[in-house]
Automatic annotation (TrEMBL):
Domain of life: Bacteria
Boundaries of every DUF1232 domain copy: 49-83
A Pfam family it matches: DUF1232
InterPro entries noted in UniProt: DUF1232, UCP031804
Native species: Halomonas cibimaris
Protein name: YkvA family protein
Swiss-Prot/TrEMBL keywords: Membrane, Transmembrane, Transmembrane helix
Major localization listed first in the record, in broad terms: membrane
Keyword Transmembrane helix found: yes
Membrane topology: Multi-pass membrane protein
Membrane-crossing segments per the record: 34-60, 72-93
Compartments it resides in: Endomembrane system
Length: 103
């Protein structure tokens, strides 16, 4: 990753993106937070955590297949990436993670 984009790949960048998502993407926010808590979990295998990093990186990266600035459809690609990654990690999601993500 180049230094030019490295500022986007941080915990601060993640939370900034989450707080600035349009309210119509509340479910995307919830799912992204679930991935974040899975990333922090000690029971999730490192190989699966790599997919989490990729998915969350895609969410916060300013370069997208569909630019986030396009009204209504801007986050459709992000939803797909986040949802597919969550599908891989479903067995590792705990009730506690779900509660934290819902807050």
């Amino acid at each position: 990753m180049t230094k030019r984009y490295s500022k986007h790949f941080s915990q601060k960048g993640f939370w900034r993106k989450i707080y600035h998502l349009p309210t119509t993407y509340k479910e995307l926010s919830y799912r992204a937070k679930l991935l974040y808590y899975l990333l922090k979990s000690p029971v999730v295998p490192v190989a699966l955590k790599a997919s989490v990093v990729g998915a969350l990186g895609y969410l916060i990266c300013p370069l997208d297949a569909i630019p986030d600035t396009i009204p209504i459809v801007g986050y459709v690609d992000d939803v797909g990436v986040i949802t597919a990654t969550l599908g891989l990690l479903e067995p590792y999601i705990t009730t506690d993670m779900r509660h934290k993500a819902a807050r």
